[in-house]
Every structure is written in structure tokens, then in C-alpha cells.
Task: inverse folding
């Protein structure tokens, strides 16, 4: 009992914006108590989606009300297309109709889409509201709920409109991962593998077994993944909150990943799946420019291929390159990558010739 | 010559976000040099409107190019209606089409509308771009270009969507005020009078003569107003960047002002005109709740009535009250005001009974 009740607390040290990540089992019903402890204003709006609401919204609202909060909710349709200016505008209108003022907290209950969108609302409604992240997917628990990046998509590019808006706390209830379909676990594993490659060879070495356990929803493994990844993300974000340097290493796999995700219309590949393919391709690039050796390349290859993945969407390399040039990580027309030097160490953004990228993209589509 | 060439420099001390306000005559042609001195990235986009572009855009672009900047521009139609999500979306699209990346600076050239809108774009495009304010109206030079408040309007309320995003520097060229129509000078005077009432009785005492000189476009007076108001605003903003306390005193006149502005469809009263009416009404409220004495009330009355003002738009007090209840300065259903205790000292936000507000609003429409 002390073990299952225990809460792991990881601090993200950001000066006056310092906040904790609380990780544990069956934590949702503690939302109200924790919100009170963290000084959340009495009035709060839970933003969630149609997948998550039937499963977890009642417990969260009940817990908030039990602790004296005036809690209401906004439920949006599920899916990446909701991360739009259109949806944001509707939510602004709902908040205004409810007379939400500056002392209203926004609580994001859901996966990455809900967290990014609700966080953008919290960053911009009346110039900023207190914000809480309650991630309910592996992807959002290991990665997107931590670090304050919030935003929405533009038809011409993902996350092109956004802000940095740190939460007051993050509540990661591991029990919510039990209801996730396999594809959602896979998405989270994309970021888990990323942390191994960019920062921690020992963690990477333990992943082979861990991945299979995570795919079986093994609670202990999932909890360990969340705690270890949040610790690494906190380390990076606290040293470079606004991605002026070090933080860019978190983009490993994301340059090609974003392009593939877009090529599949944000449907045939989910974000984490696209990142897995992206990491594979970017490791191949690293090998061809002579940074990583063949043995380590194979280890990354083997680990990624042990995760069930849909095929790479069909798209010309010219089209993919165009998307990459427009990526906001590109500061000019040149395409840059975070490239692994070895497992656990990566470069800062490095320009790579387009011809070489093209060759790797072509190999990617027929080698698997 | 040393006098007309001299630049007044006022610092806004905000830790790592500290920046200078540079005030002088004929400064626009120095934009490029100053941008270079302040480390603005080589690529920049000037956002301006159809009123300002023919007058000042060529000089600014030329100066930027002469100093090695890649400068392009986005010209929007003039007017408050442009402070919309619709317009913001169009600008995001234009920036994406031009492949503007994170190392693109946004330069706002124009009045409050351009500054607020361009600032909102700078705050949210790709999670934040470097930003420069080049205000060309009295209102924006004395007030809105300083302090980092940026935002756009929602059909249900002004400035409801926004952020705090400090500029890297503010360049206030007093010469640009020479082309302003009288109504625009009046708008700036609204904020000038506000600074006298909320913070500085001595400054207030000198205003009677100064207002007439400003209406004649007297350069020395205008420059003094800009420098003194920026000094006061810097004082307030540096003590309370995000309006958690002291900064709220800058809202004197704005609770009723915003409601009147909205009642007039943002056309029959301009912002500064509405603030002048708002300050008059809020001073009357202060008198009725027994805070300010009759003599000081009359002095404020006389000063405001020495400024040429359009009539108060016809609107029911019930409608005006409804708008005020939805104001983002209202933290619950209650309406709060910054009330002058005497010239130079005001309260923090103070709840006032709606019946009393109604009576003052009715008096306002038939006493003048």
C-alpha cells in the first residue's frame, strides 16, 4: 500500500516559474486537494476531449468540487485538427460567455492535443491564466506536458502559433494509461526512445525489455518511463527554457518526423510514430555524414523496429524537403538536424545537404 | 543642433527583459543604426497600416537596408477592427509564405492598433519573435508602446486575447506627431491626463497650458509629455510587469472608457476620447463615494473639458454595466474602479455599487 499510494515528485526549477511534476497511481481523484495545495484560483475550467471526458472528467470535476472549487468543463472533439485557430476562437467565446476572468485557472485533461491547445488558451486569454496539466497519455506524460511549450497548428505548418506558458503543476496519473490503445503507447515510446538516444545510454540499454512491458501496459514500467523521462526533460528545460541552445536536442527525430506526419495528413502517422520514423531516418543521416558508427546505428535501428509502426506515408522527397525548409526549427532556408554521435550524445542543430537527406528519405520508404 | 539631435533615453528595468525607450526628433531615419545597436536579427518584417505606410515606411525600410537588414513589410488596412483574430491569421500566413523563422524581428510602425496587433503576432508566431515598437501617434508614444501589453479584440470584448511581450527597444520619433490630425492628439492627451491624475500632481498642474500647446503640435511640449509619461509608465511597469497589483492604476478611466468605446462601435469615440470621458465619470464616482473633494473634482473636470471631445454615445446604463461586468479587469461579477483620492493619488481596484454607477452614467450623458 505505501508503494501504490506513493507519489513521485520531480521539480522543474525555473526560478519564479518553478513547478512540480507529480507522478502516481490513481491520482486523478486527488486533483482537488493538489489544486488547493498549489494555490489554484477557486474558479477553474477543465478543457478535455470527447475521448477522455467519459473516462476521467467526472472524477476530476468531483474532486475539484469536493475541495471547494467552482469547476466547469469544455469538451472538444478529439483529434489533431482541433489544434486550430478556429477551435481556439470557439473556446475564447465560451470562456467569455461564462465570464471567465483573469483569476480562472485552465486545467488541461488529456493528451498532447488537449495540453497544447488548452495551454495556448491559458497563455493568451486575457493575457494569461493560471494553468495545470493533467496528461492522460504516455506521450503527454513523458514529454509534452512538461516544459511550457503550448500552441496550435496553421494550415502551413504544425505548432506555428504558440507561446511558452509554464503550468503551476503537472499531475501524471499512471492509471489513466491502462485505457490507452496500443498505438497511443507506441506514440509515447517514440519520445521515450528519444530520451535514451539524446541523453542516457544506460537508460537506452534497459529499453529493449521495457518497451515490450510498456506495450503490455505494465504499470511499473510505465511509471519508471514517465519518471525518468520527466527528470531528463526537466534537466534540459531548466537549462534552456526558451530553446536558445541545449533544448533544441529535444527535436531529435522531429525535423523528418514533422514532415512525415504532415505528408500523412496528420492521420496515417500519429506524432510519436512519425518521430520514431524520423529518428530512424536522422540516425541514418548521422551514419552517412560519418558521426555515428555502424554498431550504434544498428542498435537504434533494432530498438525502433521492435515497436509496431505503420508504414511511412508515400510522399516525394521534394515535398518532404519543402516542409522541412518551412519548419520553424529552420532559421533560414537550410535544414538542420540533431544528429546522434553515439547513443546518449547528440549534436546541436547541424546543417545537412539536401541531396543526402533525399537519399535517406528514399531509402526509408523501401528499406522497410 | 545638439538639442534637436539629442535623444532622450528612458530605461524600463525588467531584469533580463530590460529595454530602452529612445525619444527624439527625426529619429526614424536612425531605425537601422539603432536596430543594429540593439542586436535585432538581420531579417525583419515591418508591420504598419495604410495611413502610416505612405508617410514613414520608405524611410524606415531604407534605413534598415542601409544597415544591412533584410527588411520587408506587411501593410494592413487602418482601424481598430483590424485588431482581430482574422487579421492575425492573415499575417501568420504571410509570414509563413515568406518563410519567416524564429530569427525574424517584428517591427511595429504606427499607432496603438498596429503596436498591439504586431506585438501579438510577435508574441505568438513560432512561440515568440524579437519585437521593436516604433510608435507614430501620441497615444502610442506616451502609453501603449511601453510595458509589453499586446493583444487583439474578440467580438465580445476588447483586448481579450493577448500576452505580455516586451520589445527590445521603443523608438519614439516626435516628428511623426506633426502629421497627426487633432483627434489623434486628443487621444494621446487622454493618457497624458491620466498620468497626472494617478501619479503626479505637479505634472497635472502644468497640463492646462501644455494641452493647448500640444493641440497646436508644439514639438517641445509633445516631447516633454512623451518623456514624462514614459518615465511614469516605466516606474509602474517595472514594479508590476504583469498587473498583479500596482499596474492596475493605469486602468483609471478605462473601465467606463472601454464600455463607452464599445457602445460607440469603436467608431464614434476613439480609445483616448473614451478614456477622457471615462476619467470624468470615474472622478464623479469617486466624489459620490466620498473619496475626492469637490475642488479637486472640478480641477479634473475643467482640464478634461478643455480638450475637444465628441459627445458620449447614446447607450443604456444597463448595457454599459453589462459590458463592464465582462471586462477582463473584473475578476468576478463585481465592477471595480481605480478612483482618485486626490490629484496624484488613486486607489487600487475598488468595488462600486451598480446603482451608483448607473446614476453617474445617466448624469454623464445629460450634463455635457
Result:
Amino acid at each position: 500500500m505505501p508503494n501504490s499510494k506513493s507519489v513521485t515528485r520531480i521539480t522543474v526549477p525555473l526560478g519564479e516559474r518553478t513547478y512540480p511534476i507529480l507522478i502516481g497511481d490513481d491520482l486523478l481523484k486527488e486533483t482537488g486537494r493538489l489544486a488547493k495545495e498549489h494555490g489554484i484560483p477557486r474558479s477553474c475550467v477543465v478543457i478535455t476531449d470527447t475521448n477522455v471526458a467519459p473516462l476521467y472528467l467526472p472524477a476530476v470535476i468531483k474532486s475539484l468540487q469536493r475541495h471547494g472549487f467552482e469547476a466547469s468543463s469544455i469538451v472538444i472533439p478529439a483529434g489533431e485538427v482541433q489544434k486550430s485557430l478556429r477551435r481556439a476562437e470557439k473556446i475564447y467565446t465560451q470562456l467569455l460567455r461564462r465570464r471567465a476572468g483573469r483569476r480562472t485557472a485552465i486545467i488541461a485533461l488529456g493528451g498532447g492535443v488537449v495540453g497544447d491547445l488548452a495551454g495556448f488558451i491559458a497563455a493568451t486569454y486575457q493575457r494569461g491564466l493560471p494553468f495545470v496539466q493533467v496528461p492522460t497519455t504516455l506521450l503527454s506524460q513523458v514529454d509534452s506536458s512538461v516544459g511550457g511549450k503550448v500552441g496550435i497548428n496553421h494550415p502551413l505548418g504544425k505548432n506555428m502559433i504558440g507561446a511558452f506558458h509554464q503550468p503551476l503543476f503537472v499531475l501524471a496519473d499512471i492509471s489513466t494509461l491502462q485505457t490507452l490503445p496500443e498505438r497511443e503507447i507506441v506514440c509515447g515510446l517514440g519520445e521515450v526512445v528519444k530520451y535514451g538516444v539524446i541523453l542516457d545510454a544506460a537508460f537506452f540499454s534497459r529499453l529493449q525489455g521495457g518497451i515490450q512491458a510498456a506495450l503490455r501496459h505494465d504499470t511499473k514500467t510505465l511509471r519508471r518511463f514517465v519518471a525518468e523521462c520527466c527528470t531528463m526533460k526537466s534537466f534540459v528545460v531548466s537549462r534552456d527554457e526558451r530553446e536558445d541552445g541545449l533544448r533544441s536536442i529535444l527535436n531529435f527525430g522531429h525535423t523528418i518526423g514533422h514532415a512525415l506526419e504532415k505528408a500523412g495528413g496528420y492521420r496515417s502517422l500519429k506524432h510519436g510514430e512519425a518521430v520514431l520514423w524520423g529518428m530512424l531516418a536522422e540516425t541514418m543521416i548521422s551514419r552517412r555524414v560519418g558521426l555515428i558508427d555502424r554498431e550504434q546505428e544498428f542498435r537504434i535501428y533494432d530498438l525502433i523496429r521492435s515497436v509496431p509502426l505503420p508504414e511511412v506515408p508515400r510522399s516525394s522527397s521534394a515535398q518532404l524537403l519543402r516542409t522541412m525548409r518551412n519548419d520553424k526549427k529552420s532559421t533560414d532556408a537550410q535544414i538542420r538536424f540533431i544528429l546522434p554521435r553515439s547513443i546518449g550524445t547528440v549534436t546541436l542543430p547541424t546543417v545537412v545537404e539536401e541531396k543526402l537527406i533525399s537519399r535517406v528519405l528514399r531509402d526509408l520508404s523501401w528499406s522497410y
About this structure: Chain A touches chain B at residues 85, 89, 92-93, 96-97, 99, 101-103, 123-128, 149, 151, 154-157, 159-164, 242, 325-326, 328, 330-333 (CB under 8 Å). Residues 219-239 of chain A form the longest helix (21 residues). The longest strand of chain A covers residues 157-164.
